[in-house]
Amino acid sequence: MPTDPIVPFSARPSIFDDIEALRQATDLTATSREIMSHLPIGRPGKEEFFRTNPRPDMSLVAYVYEDKTERKQYFVAPNMRDTMGLYARQVLISVLFTWPSRVTRIYPVPLALDGRSNPWLETARDAVEKAKKEWVKMVPDQRAGFYRIFMPSGDLPEPEWSDKTFSELLETAFRGLVITSDDHPVVRQLQGLT
After folding, report:
1. In which band, very low, low, confident or very high, does the pLDDT at 33 lie, cut at 50, 70 and 90?
2. Closest Cα partner for 34 from 172, 145, 171?
3. What is the pLDDT of residues 90-136, one digit of tens each?
């Protein structure tokens, strides 16, 4: 019965024998494109710089209801604004792109309440407006009672805006979070119904 010859380790072919072939192999690139299946809603974190999509068709004045217990924001359909009453808050829905997380998000920026001055709301709107042209971050200052707005020290890359329409972004962000009728569980809960 023939036996396999024993090949000394040093005589075995090595992947590293042809360095030029390895260099050529690194020229190959594989790319992928993310499928946006979820879109966060809310203010960016104090550690994140952000840009606001400057296109006029990428924002909307609307109403939302914020469930602070569940930490969810619901889009309130126009036909439900009267029913939701004081629970619904008028907002400017804006599309943001954050850095370093590189995430698109929806930020319902609260608008003024009954024309009264509110430094928190004013500085949040200022930051969102400024972010149409440059990177900013907003850091809450509890003692002063407003957001401090900072710019990055270095140059950050341009935002990578989604090719989705504003309607598609809202549909993704508010999936399962739209109040359209009196039968909605949130409306029933607020009315004390089961």
Report:
1. confident
2. 172
3. 999 999 999 999 999 999 999 977 777 899 999 999 999 999 999 99
Other CB atoms within a 10 A radius of the CB of residue 111 amount to 14
Query: H or E segment at 130?
Result: helix 119-130
Residue among 35, 61, 59, 38 nearest 177 (CA)? 38
Q: Is 184 helix (H, G, I), strand (E, B) or coil?
A: coil
Q: What are the tens digits of pLDDT across the range 147-187?
A: 999 999 999 999 999 999 999 999 999 999 999 999 999 99
Residue 120 and residue 142: Cα distance in Å, rounded? 10
Nearest Cα residue to 107 out of 134, 77, 73, 135: 73
Q: What is the pLDDT of residue 19?
A: 81
Dihedral (C-alpha) 52, 54, 57, 60: value to the nearest 10 degrees?
40
Residue closest to 72 by CA, chosen among 174, 192, 185: 174
Q: What stretch of H or E contains 128?
A: helix 119-130
Spans of all domains in the chain = 36-190
Paired sense of beta strands 59-67 and 72-76, if any: antiparallel
